[in-house]
Design goal:
- By secondary structure, the protein is mainly alpha-helical.
- Helices cover 40% and strands 7% of the residues.
- The protein has a two-stranded parallel sheet. Strands 3-4 form a two-stranded antiparallel ribbon.
- β3 and β4 form a beta hairpin.
- The longest helix is centred in the first third of the chain and has 12 residues.
Length: 109
């Protein structure tokens, strides 16, 4: 997996996370796929854990819409609060209407 954490892949992840619109979410797997490594969802999680704190990591969730935030300040409660501020409802750490809020960048459309 270390080869997936190379600078180019990291930068691609950062660039993509930076443009996730407010009120929308993406999955680790989506991000990995768009960045050229479809089996690297865990690598995206590692990048998020150590990545720049000014990116909207709270908009990144797992493939079932479940928050798994060990990298957002305040953990899951911090992530839930930030999502709530964007009118995203979370119940029991699961995004309500997850599929409707899932953002698909135009490059995949």
């Amino acid at each position: 997996m270390s080869d997936l954490l190379n600078k180019q892949f990291r930068n691609n992840v950062y660039d993509l996370v930076a443009v996730i619109p407010s009120g929308r979410v993406m999955t680790y797997g989506q991000i990995a796929t768009i960045c050229g490594h479809p089996n690297a969802a865990r690598a995206v999680g590692q990048i998020a854990h150590f990545g720049p704190s000014d990116l909207p990591w709270h908009r990144v969730v797992n493939k079932k819409g479940i928050m798994a935030s060990g990298f957002v300040p305040g953990g899951k409660q911090g992530q839930k609060s930030l999502l709530k501020d964007e009118d995203i409802k979370v119940v029991d750490d699961i995004i309500v209407n997850f599929r409707e809020l899932l953002w698909q960048p135009k490059i995949l459309s």
